[in-house]
Amino acid sequence: MNLFVFGLGFTGRRFAERARDRFGTVFATVTESASAGRLAAEAGFAMRAFGPGADDPRIATDLSETDALLVSVPPGENGDPVLARYADVIAASRIGWVGYLSTIGVYGDQQGAWIDETTPASPRSGRSRIRLDAEDAWLALGAATGKAVQIFRLSGIYGPGRNLIVKLREGRSQRIVKAGQVFNRIHVDDIATTLLASIERPRAGAIYNVTDDEPTAPQTVIEHAAALTGLALPPEIDFETADLSPMARSFYGENKRVRNRLIREELGVALAYPTYREGLAALKEQP
Question: 41-50, 189-198, 253-262: which range is least confident on average?
Answer without folding.
Answer: 41-50
